[in-house]
Specification:
By secondary structure, the chain is of the alpha+beta class. The chain has 13 helices and 38 strands. Strands 6, 7, 8, 9, 11, 12, 14, 15, 19 and 20 form a ten-stranded antiparallel β-sheet that branches. It has an eight-stranded parallel β-barrel with strand order 21-22-23-26-27-28-29-30, surrounded by five helices. Strands 5, 10, 13, 16, 17 and 18 form a six-stranded antiparallel β-sheet that branches. A hairpin with a 2-residue loop joins strand 6 (about 90-100) and strand 7 (about 100-110). The longest helix is centred in the C-terminal third of the chain and has 23 residues, at about 580-600. The radius of gyration is 27 Å and the shape is globular.
């Protein structure tokens, strides 16, 4: 059983295939965390855990940290009762186990506040989901000032390092690794969405590398303001507290009302970062992504934005559709500019009717033409935004998030609709439902291009205005849930100025994410490398574009950079030569042959673009029968060299693998080696930069895709 309770020691043991997690009742009936790490012997053989109780070794070990009860760890729960009391005192009541699910029931008896701690054990991926539900069983309001999801604790060791993802617009998902010193390290967002600056993911390791060592990790399923605090003090375990950000937040919990915090997902690997990442990836595929499309392969898409920008019309989109079909594209997407009086980014957002000057007969003639070419049809929307120059804003200026007597800050010449309002929610549901009902649309790119600044909600009483941060996100989720159920044929892509809203909360309602607006094929390598620590390759969209100039990056290099997740193309096909079309057709076909492994297999980072002279990523099928190696040279670590030995991972030692290159039926065999030899000796890749000195051109942007399969 994955969940066991020992009546003698009053401990709960949660076990996965390789992880143990233990907490129990102390002498005062308080829930205390005792252990998180490698799977240990059964409960009766837990001397390490028993010692923790007998020695009363820690004071930082509340399983759910509250403001009160002599606690000075960052709290998960802070309230103010009707009489002004601000301390929470939780008493254990009962527990219930059902298969892989556990609920612990606690109560602040004097004020009739119930707190239920939920656990779900994901055995296969060494992961536990945790969340909390708070219920007001009194006849008085209770003000919630902080409601996070988890308190976690790991070993306090000078070797402990904190890993997290940071960046900015156009430069998201950069991995940082630093010592954990005494005090608090705060990772957070205050901009109303997940943000590109920091991502709600952490990993703590103890001198681990890709293949060895202990790694503890976690990520939050929330798409609004969030906060993760890593707190250290001498002689205490390192505490990690995560959930909704308490900054500018409060919630009035009415009598009989329940409030549920978002899930916090955490896990453990004692085989380094690769195992941690693979567990995260496949947990997301099996448990997070919408089940109807989670294991359906993502189609190769073309987006016409770079070719036409706002100047979309039926004629130029048909021309591009013909050229996209020519190279094997499966999904054609029109971007911004098809609606309202939308000729630039100054007007039209909010007016979601088809622009008759650009599409005189509506969208259906274009959609029918695209489908006659054998492609699906997709469209771009930005439902949460409005331009001041729009019919919607002139009719409903009160719908935007703002304060009276204060300026309304513009970003990208737009304001943000207050989705916490039910009338705004209904407006978005109605126009999106009509758009998808009246048109044969298969794909929606849902964008969100700004932050929240003046976070006013003046239409509700002051004591409830700070609820905007959570009610906005709840309504967003409900809209997407409704649209998915009403239009199950539609695939949704989540975009927010690139990677500004990438989290497993929104991934429950969207099938893939737009990773970054930066499509420079080399810049993307570091972005994609960082992304891979927290999110599955299948979720990640990569586009082949003209960013950086086609004279800088060979077209093959651009394709290979974009084929590390789900492939898209955004380059202006009107500028392609016949040679470009031939190469693009070849690369698209190659991707179709390998995408099952890339999107559904196991990913191995064989090098780091940050530190190495090349970047190599391996993808291995689940049965280990075949795989893909994508290799790109790092031109910014310059130097002459003739060859690189790239060592593969995850192969069966005694099996023989054929390494080859090219499309099926046109394979060029490179070598045959045992799995052990490929892991220890590696594949030799010729990689010379001498052409740069002979021609003066940047031919040192070298890339290659090799394939391998196990011989029968």
């Amino acid at each position: 059983m994955p969940i066991n309770f020992d009546k003698e020691t009053k401990r709960w043991l949660l076990e996965t295939e390789n992880m143990g997690y233990v907490f129990g009742l102390d002498d005062q009936g308080k829930i205390k965390n005792l252990y998180w790490g490698s799977k240990l012997p059964r409960v009766q053989d837990y001397p390490e855990v028993k010692d923790l109780i007998l020695m009363d070794r820690y004071t930082w070990n509340d399983e759910f940290s509250v403001r009160g009860e002599k606690n000075n760890v960052e709290h998960c729960l802070k309230v103010e009762y009707c009489d002004g009391v601000r301390d929470v005192v939780l008493n254990y009541k009962s527990f219930e186990v059902s298969g892989n699910d556990l609920v612990i029931r606690l109560s602040d008896d004097h004020y009739n506040l119930s707190v239920n701690l939920f656990y779900k054990v994901i055995e296969k991926y060494d992961i536990i989901e945790r969340w909390v539900e708070i219920e007001n069983n009194s006849n008085q309001e209770i003000k919630i000032e902080d409601m996070k999801s988890v308190s976690l604790y790991v070993e306090n060791d000078e070797k402990a390092k904190l890993n997290y993802l940071t960046g900015m617009w156009g430069s998201e998902f950069h991995l940082r690794r630093e010592e954990i010193n005494e005090g608090s390290k705060v990772l957070e967002s205050r901009v109303g969405k997940t943000s590109a600056y920091l991502n709600p993911f952490f990993a703590i390791d103890y001198s681990a590398d890709e293949d060895h060592g202990k790694v503890y990790f976690g990520e939050l399923a929330w798409s609004g303001n969030w906060k993760i605090v890593v707190q250290k003090r001498i002689y205490e375990r390192i505490a990690i507290i995560g959930g909704i950000n308490d900054w500018d937040f409060s919630y009035i919990l009415e009598p009989s009302e329940k409030l549920t915090a978002p899930k916090f997902v955490f896990g453990f690997s004692d085989e380094g970062f690769t195992k941690a990442s693979q567990n995260i990836h496949h947990y997301q595929l099996d448990y997070i992504l919408p089940k109807d499309k989670a294991h359906i392969l993502r189609k190769v898409l073309y987006n016409s934005w770079e070719a036409t920008t706002f100047n979309v019309n039926e004629e130029n989109q048909k021309i591009l559709a013909e050229k996209a079909a020519k190279i094997g594209v499966e999904l054609f997407v029109i971007d911004d500019g098809w609606f309202g009086k939308r000729n630039d980014d100054h007007a039209g957002l909010g007016d979601w009717y088809v622009n008759k000057e650009k599409f005189p007969n509506g969208l259906q003639p274009l959609i029918s033409y695209v489908k006659s070419l054998g492609m699906d049809f997709g469209i771009w929307v930005e439902p949460e935004m409005v331009n001041p120059d729009s019919e919607l804003y002139r009719k409903h200026p009160d719908w935007v998030i703002s304060f009276p007597n204060r300026p309304k800050s513009l970003e990208r010449n737009q304001l943000m609709l207050n989705l916490a309002r039910e009338d705004v929610k209904k407006f978005i549901v109605d126009f999106m439902d009509n758009l998808l009902t009246q048109n044969d649309i298969d794909f929606v790119k849902w964008d969100m291009n700004r932050h929240v600044f003046e976070s006013g909600w003046m239409q509700v009483e002051p004591r409830k205005q700070r609820e905007i941060w959570v009610k906005y996100v709840w309504n967003l989720y409900e809209i997407l849930k409704y649209l998915r159920e009403k239009h199950p044929q539609v695939t949704f892509e989540n975009c927010s100025s690139g990677g500004g809203r990438v989290d497993i909360g929104l991934m429950q309602y969207s099938d893939q994410v737009w990773t970054s607006d930066n499509t420079d094929p080399f810049d993307r390598l570091e972005i994609q490398e960082g992304f891979s620590y927290a999110y599955a390759p299948k979720i990640m969209m990569g586009w082949v574009t003209d960013w950086g100039g086609k004279d800088t990056y060979p077209l093959a290099y651009r394709f290979h950079s974009s084929m590390m997740g789900s492939l898209g193309i955004g380059a202006d096909l009107n500028k392609f030569s016949e040679k470009d079309f031939d190469l693009a057709r070849h690369q698209v076909q190659l991707y179709k042959e390998i995408r099952q492994i890339v999107q559904e297999g196991y990913q191995f980072r064989l090098s780091s673009v940050i530190n190495e002279r090349y970047f190599a990523v391996e993808y291995l099928s689940k049965n280990k029968d075949e795989g893909v190696l994508i290799y790109l040279r790092n031109p910014r670590r310059f130097g002459l060299f003739d060859r690189v030995d790239v060592k593969l991972k995850g192969l069966e030692n005694d099996a023989v693998y054929t390494v080859y290159e090219g499309l099926q039926g046109e394979e060029k065999e490179i070598i045959k080696l045992s799995g052990k030899a490929l892991k220890e000796r590696g594949i030799i890749i010729e990689d010379s930069s001498k052409d740069f000195f002979e021609t003066g051109k940047a031919t040192h942007f070298y890339s290659r895709i090799l394939r391998f399969r196990k011989r029968d």
